[in-house]
Amino acid sequence: MKSNKNIEFNAAFDLIHENSVKRPEKIAFIDDDNVISYLELSNKVKSFAQSLYQTGLKKNDRVIICMDDCINFPIVFLGSIWAGIVPICVNTMLQKNDLKYMIEDSEANAIFCSNELCNKFQEIKDTSKKEILIFSDNNLSSTAKEFNNNLSAMINSKALKTLPEKTYENTECFWLYSSGSTGRPKGTIHLHKSLKNTAVLYAKSILKIQQEDVFFSAAKLFFAYGLGNALTFPMSVGGTSILSKQRPTVEIVIRKIINNKVTIFFGVPTLYAVLLNSNLDPANFKSLRLAVSAGEALPESLCKKWINLTGTEVLDGIGSTEMLHIFISNSINNITPGSSGKPVPGYEVRLIKDDNTEAEVDEIGELEVKGPTSAKAYWNKPEKTSATFFGEWTKTGDKYIKNSKGIFKYCGRTDDMMKVSGQYVSPFEIEAALQSHPLVLEAAVVGKLNQDNLLKPKAYIVLNTDNNNKINQIETELTNYIKNKLTPFKYPRWYEFLDSLPKTATGKIQRYKLRD
Ligand code: 3UK
After folding, report:
1. Would you say the CATH fold of 417-515 matches that of 11-25+37-191?
2. Does the beta carbon of 220 sit less than 6 angstroms from any atom of ligand 1?
3. What would the CATH number be for the domain defined by 417-515?
4. Per-residue pLDDT at 138 exceeds 70
């Protein structure tokens, strides 16, 4: 019988306790500078949890984590959850206006950030009416006297909160922000049970993760994908996770894999394309037993090239911030290159056609998913919440087709969003940014496939004046401008200059005419 009881459960306790007792000396995390064992991790989590209360924060308060991948990240994330405080992980590459929005929207009481980001947050604080504490390894702000705003002091203080705060499977645990084609990012509220459920349903059953595995995720911890790959999954089996602050270039990825004898690697298709175009020696991948790709569809050719080069499989699977991790996936010894595979057991999916009926085999429909890792809601956005979450079902915004073998193939988004390097980009956001440049009269942005079959933004521009003789300079100027104004990866990879944009009678840009 299905029980509706809300069972007592703390996600941090679940990941910490057993490891600290059964394998205290085992290395949990290795970052660019340090290593930490499961016992040390447990003590620091408890120390940080106690320090949170000493700074005046209370149960159910919210805190923002904007940190590069390093050992302090799991300590701050799990320490907050241990204390019943809700951490909100945000992208470290965001520009000030997005961060300011998230600080105000979330009503967070404190920010934990990497040293390099401290000034940025201080500047935001200075222009905002909101009272907020900022903690990093610098002592910049001085409102929280107790620890001089020093994160290390909080993590290393002697007082421990030995028992976790009483929380339940279905109480609010942490947030992530998810972006859409229009409007501001949405605070996506996840429950205590969801972290564990992603590990049980996907990582243990599909990836067959074990205590002996060494995990390395090129996707950072502030993404749902990276959080599962590099924190939940390794801790769910007592494995070791490799963290790095650095941008995942070919050199860094290869060095991390070799030096740490990584067994399971997680990347996005763009990174696989770069690795596969670099003429690498297969010996670099000797320690690997498996690779995973998500964020956008992995083209069939890249999947096959990876297998040829490394002799290991790469499992493509689709996940989302709303579902926390992957819910349709290929599996070991059973992959169909160019597809997302089959629903992960424990999830149900359906494809809905325009007339609201379910698609038959070989018919395209919009993908909906149901499973025990779905977010509860978007914070403070009732309309967007009810447009996405329907009882137990969640809309993904993706078009899919299922063949007679039950294998799902990605057919594009139902909205205007693009996934570029595994991350959401709204064409409208790039257009608005381009239009704010004095040289630009009008701009339209569409997705175009590059040589690896991966989608990247292309801009069609109508210039203000006749500048045709300096096109190269203008392109460089616009690229630098966008990289400064938006999260840098959103810049257009191609430009085309037109006299006018194709429009409908009512003046709407006809993007379909610009896509080839
Ligand atoms: C697209 C894919 C085709 C799809 C994510 C793994 O990407 C993640 O979350 P986001 O919220 O984006 C979700 C959207 O991205 N997508 C993701 N993976 C695939 N499309 N094939 C794929 N393999 O449009 C989806 O709706 O950024 C990925 C784990 C956790 C995640 N949050």
Report:
1. no
2. no
3. 3.30.300.30
4. no
Q: Which of 196, 423, 235, 413 is nearest to 321 (CA)?
A: 423
Residue nearest to atom 17 of ligand 1 (CA): 295
List, in sequence order, every beta strand (DSSP E) within 450-490. 455-463
Atom of ligand 1 minimally distant from the CA of 396: 26
Which region among 16-20, 145-149, 468-472, 506-510 has the lowest average model confidence (pLDDT)? 145-149
Could you tell me the residue ranges of all domains in the chain? 11-25+37-191, 195-414, 417-515
Burial 75-113 (b: 16+ CB within 10 A, else e): bbbbbbbbbbbbbbbbbbebeeebbbebbebbebbbbbb
CB of 338 closer than 6 angstroms to any ligand 1 atom: no
Closest-CA residue to 261 (of 230, 288, 235): 288
Mutate to test the pocket of ligand 1, among 266, 340, 419 (most ligand atoms within 8 A of CB): 419
DSSP state of 91: -
Instruction: State the pairing for strand pair 364-370/172-178.
Output: unpaired
Angle, helix 269-276 to helix 250-260, in steps of 10 degrees: 90
Specify the CATH superfamily of domain 195-414.
Answer: ANL, N-terminal domain (3.40.50.12780)
Residue nearest to atom 3 of ligand 1 (CA): 297
Say how many Å lie between the CA of residue 320 and the centre of ligand 1. 5
Angle between helices 72-82 and 38-54 (to 10 degrees): 60
Ligand 1: does its nearest atom lie under 6 Å from the Cβ of 112?
no
The alpha carbon of 249 and the centre of ligand 1 are apart by a number of angstroms equal to 21
**Which stretch of DSSP H or E encloses residue 82?**
helix 72-82
267 touches ligand 1 (CB under 6 Å): no
Tens of pLDDT, residues 31-85: 999 999 999 999 999 999 999 999 999 999 999 999 999 999 999 999 999 999 9
CB of residue 421 inside a 6 A radius of ligand 1: no
pLDDT one-digit tens code per residue, 360-413: 999 999 999 999 999 999 999 999 999 999 999 999 999 999 999 999 999 999
Q: How far is the CA of 468 from the centre of ligand 1 (A)?
A: 39
**6-27 burial: b if 16+ Cβ within 10 Å, else e:** eeebbbbbbbbeebbeebeebb
pLDDT tens profile 262-296: 999 999 999 999 999 999 999 999 999 999 999 99
Could you identify the residue written with the tokens 């996707």? 219
11-25+37-191 topology per CATH: Rossmann fold (3.40.50)
Q: Tokens 């349903």 belong to which residue?
A: 201
End-to-end CA distance of the chain: 54
Strand partners, 16: none
d(CA 199, CA 488): 32
Among 10-19, 175-184, 463-472, the range with the most confident prediction by mean pLDDT is 10-19
Strand order in the sheet with 27-30: 35-37, 27-30, 240-242, 214-217, 264-267, 290-293, 314-319, 326-329, 342-343
Kindly report whether the global pTM for this prediction surpasses the value 0.85.
yes
